[in-house]
Amino acid sequence: MDALHAGLLALDSHIDIPWPVTDDPTGITSRCVDFPKMRAGGVTAGCFAAYIPQGALDDAGHGDAVVRATAMLAEIGRMGRAEGVRLCETADEVRAAFGEGARAVVACIENGYAMGRDLSRLERFRRAGVRYITLTHNGHNLLADSAIPRRDLGDSVIRHGGLSRLGRAAIVEMNILGILIDVSHAHRDTMLQAAKLSKTPVVATHACVRALCDHPRNLDDEQLRVLKDTGGLIQITAMGSFLRRGGKRLDGTPVGIADFVDHIDYVIEKIGVAHVGIGSDFDGGGGIEGFTTIADSPNVTAEFRRRGYDDDSIAAIWGGNFLTLMERAERA
Ligand SMILES: [Zn+2]
């Protein structure tokens, strides 16, 4: 491993866990991310998501969602208590884990559906360590419109016109609790409204650039400009179909690290290096040629080197920017 990569505090802002869990991430698994692979890849920290699939917007659906979120957060907490691993709730705790050579687990929730109609659940989630919540997944929920409606759940193109009144109240509460607002999966209007409303800048923890690949999950130039104006972040994700249409280059070969870094290049050129990072979506569909598991992370740094990125920029992209945003949320 390149000495620069080995000395980095690297953080991946979006990793899923299998559910139900059938293996032990402290040992070798078939997952893209387990602790041995994080060590091998020189990655200190991962944001591990309690992912809640969108279901019906009724009491039974919301009841199931909170049961699943609670159980998944308990599992993420268990991961954080393993030997050589820390469950980290602040940027300083992540830095301390790095100093000790430990792995850092940061808990998060993917899909605001987990809170149902009950704002008081946000404080319970924060007490379980949660540092960001993705407002929606695919499909509208009671908080906001999603970039990808679920016709099978009865969604029309638009439900609320961006954020609902409950969604706005949730953002105010998340600001108070120091929970970051993840706008990945959100409809464009939801994202723009959230960026304007939130006191702490918003983050897309796993998304790509629409100018390079016209996918509804990607952020367009106006959204990038809003991230710049508000101090927000886009964490480029290793999802082939978000990087290039159909996950393939024009010559038919599968996308790889060069395509991934093309998206990072684009964000840097458009809005600056302070607004970009990495969120692989490993174990949630992420993985491209050359970056198939978290153990391949040094390959990304090698591509940064090839393109002449300086050491400070590489450190900012690989985690510095995300930790700064965590800190801003902690002070809010
Ligand atoms: Zn996702």
Automatic annotation (TrEMBL):
What are the GO MF terms of this UniProt record? metallodipeptidase activity
**Mind listing the GO biological process terms from this record?**
proteolysis
The keyword Secreted belongs to this UniProt entry's keyword annotation: no
Q: Which InterPro entries match?
A: Metal_Hydrolase, Pept_M19
Q: What is its EC number?
A: 3.4.13.19
The family database entries (Pfam families) matched by this protein are listed as: Peptidase_M19
Q: Which UniProt keywords apply?
A: Dipeptidase, Hydrolase, Protease
PANTHER family for the chain: DIPEPTIDASE, MICROSOMAL DIPEPTIDASE
This chain's protein is named Membrane dipeptidase
Q: Whose protein is this, by species?
A: Endobacter medicaginis
- What lineage is this protein's organism placed in? Bacteria, Pseudomonadati, Pseudomonadota, Alphaproteobacteria, Acetobacterales
